[in-house]
Amino acid sequence: MASSPNDSPLSPTQAAILSKVEPAELVEQPLVANDRDFNWVTNKICRIVETKTPTWWWVCMAMALLTASFTGMGLAYLVSTGVGVWGLANPINWGWAIVNFVFWIGIGHAGTLISAVLCLLKQGWRTSINRAAEAMTIFAVICAGIFPLFHVGRIWFAWWLFPLPNANAIWPQFRSPLEWDVFAVSTYGTVSVLFWYMGMIPDLGVLRDRAVQRLKLGAYEGSSWLTKRMDIFRKYFYAIFAMGWRNAGNHWRNYEMAYLVLAGLSTPLVLSVHTIVSFDFAVAQLPGWHTTIFPPYFVAGAIFSGFGMVLTLMLPLRAVYGLHDLITQRHIDNMCKICLGTGSIVGYAYIMEFFIAWYGANPYESFAFINRGFGQYSWAYYMMFACNVFTPQLFWFKAVRRNAALVWVMSIFINVGMWFERFVITVTSLANDFLPSSWGYYSPTIVDVFTFFGTFGVFSVLFLMFVRFLPLMPIGEVKYVMPQADPHCHSSHQKGEQH
Amino acid sequence: MNTDAPQVYGKKAGTLALLVGLVFTGFAGFGFYQGWVAGDSRPLMSWLIGIAFWLSIAVGMLFITQIWHVFHARWPTILRRQCEHGFSAFPVLLILFIPLLLVPFLHENPGLLWKWMNGVNELPGHGTVGEDPIYVWKQPYLNINFFTVRAVGVFFTFILLATFLRKWSFDTDKTGDINNTHKARRLSSIGLFLCAGAATMGAIDWFKALEYHWFSTMYGVWFFAASMRAALAILLILSVILVTRGYLKGILKQSHRYDIGCMMLAFTVFWAYISFSQYFLVYNANIPEETFWYNIREKNGWWPISMCLVFGHFLIPFLILLWYKSKIVVWRSVAISAWILTFHIIDLYWNIVPGKIPAENDYGYTVRPFTVEIFDLAAIIGFGGLCIWAFCRSMNKAEPIPVRDPNIENSLNYIE
Question: Can you give the residue ranges of every domain in chain B?
Answer without folding.
Answer: 11-406
